[in-house]
Design a protein that fits this description.
79 residues; rod-shaped; 61% helix; 0% strand; mainly alpha; 3 helices
Length: 79
C-alpha cells in the first residue's frame, strides 16, 4: 500500500479509529527507532582515553618486550 492509499484509508476512519491508528503508528515508531538505536555500532574511543592504557608502564621486566618474550619462551619451552 502506498503512502497516499494509506492516508486515504485513515481519512475514511471515524475519529476514534484514527486516534487508535495514530497511537499504533507512534508505538511502532518508538519500537523500531529504539531498536535501531540499540543496534547501532558504538563510536570507537581513542586508545589514548582508554583506562587500560599504561597499565604495565611501571614494570621493569617489560621495558624491552622482545627480550621479555625471548626469556619467557626459554623458561617455558627449554629442554
Amino acid at each position: 500500500m502506498s503512502e497516499e492509499e494509506l492516508i486515504k484509508q485513515i481519512k475514511k476512519l471515524p475519529s476514534e479509529a484514527r486516534q487508535e491508528a495514530a497511537d499504533f503508528v507512534e508505538f511502532l515508531a518508538q519500537k523500531y527507532i529504539q531498536k535501531s538505536e540499540e543496534t547501532d555500532i558504538p563510536k570507537k574511543k581513542s586508545i589514548l582515553k582508554n583506562s587500560f592504557r599504561g597499565v604495565w608502564k611501571d614494570r621493569d621486566d617489560l621495558q624491552d618486550s622482545t627480550k621479555w618474550v625471548r626469556e619467557l619462551r626459554k623458561s617455558r619451552w627449554a629442554n
